[in-house]
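Deliverable D4.2, example record:
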Amino acid sequence: MEFKEEENMKQIKIGFLPSNWESWDGNQFTGKWAGKMRDRCLKVMEQVDKVQIVVPSAELTEDGCVSTPEEGKKALELYLSEQIDALAVGNMTFGMEVAVGEVLSGLNKNIPILHFCTKSGPIHKGSRSTDTWCGQFMTTSAIRRRGFKFVHINTCNPEEPEFQEGFESFARVVYAIKRFKGAKIAQLGTRPLLFESQFFSEENFQRTFSQMLKTMDLATLFDQLDRIKDTDPQVVDTVTDIKAGFVCDQTIPESSIIMQAKYEIALKRAYDELDADCMAVSCWAMLQKKYGIAACSTFARLNQQGYITACEVDVLGAATMLLTRAVTMDEETPVFIDWTDLHPTEDNMWLAWHCGNAAPSLCAQSDTKKLMANERLGIWGDACDGSVEFRMKEGPVTCVRLLEYEGEYRMFISTGESVNIEPFIRGTYAWIKVRDIKKMEAAMIEAGAIHHGVLVFSETAADDLEMFCKFMNIKVIRCD
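Output generated by the structure prediction step:
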């Protein structure tokens, strides 16, 4: 299976500002403290994948910390020259708020900021060495007074899980912001006439997130598809890959699998031609009438390969998929779903389902990845081959939807557990166990959620998405 190469090449730059006050930089019992704590923090930060830490060196400032306004100016110059995506301000000791302020004065007000405070040095014979906990309140006041949004890790040392988890979460959010802002979203075809709930303002999208909609009509896409020959080596390889990846129903002819392969290649080429970061595609009814195939299994394979694809021309749905994948640093593959129905017998359980578009990697170990005819879309043609069928794996999930009403963006976020329970459902599906389904339903109505959502197997995504929304001025309606 061919994966988009650039997915694993993206990187973010986080500036690290180790704040120190020389008068509180240890004492005669501890020796100098701030520089050693800086190095301990840096060691942990540098372990996070896809993150480059930009920090003053010991040659630029004393011990590589920022202790005076003059050193603040040097640090600011470094951060600007490196074009950092975010800033982590840490109190190594009491810290110097005016030095931090010197840095902040030259940064864009929209830059995400993380603040943390390390634990103070030891008290020896009644002599305190750093008073770090006290100084942090002056630092956070300096950040707040200047109008920056920031998040905070409660006081701990860098080797503690709380620091590592907090910094990793911040890094994932910064990565998501960089992926989401300015994204190019491809729209192939027009939304279904009866799906009014998928309305959105393209102008507001551009104003708020600097995103660009890149459009292509189905006639152009199908013309490109028709030009692909059955004997094209890429078609041959894709057919082989499809057969290797699924147990194909015996009723599906070879010609149908070849057509699915050609459709996949045409979509990849359109994605690349439009320089898209994600796409929303018309998947019925012209595809069935003209080619006798469903788009579902193709979308499943595309998402597995990093070509983020939403069904039914749901542009905000595609944007939600892009974001949900990004908060996992492109490590987890989201699935476009319907919030379909309640379980027929079990309380607090609902069905996450779509026609057969879940990435193959999401299949439960005990299930089989089957390639079938679509059970619903065959009404538009004699054949409608190309729907994946399996139950999705067990585990914690985050389900989410980006929404727009009256020019305001909001996000519904919920969590739950995918469980192994009957009944079997055609398509790709998961039964999701939640704490209180009535509370969840009420929250969805309050949020204005529509029938489409996005599911990702992640324990951290919900908290990360909430942090993302804080930095991006998106209202959150959450139900756990």
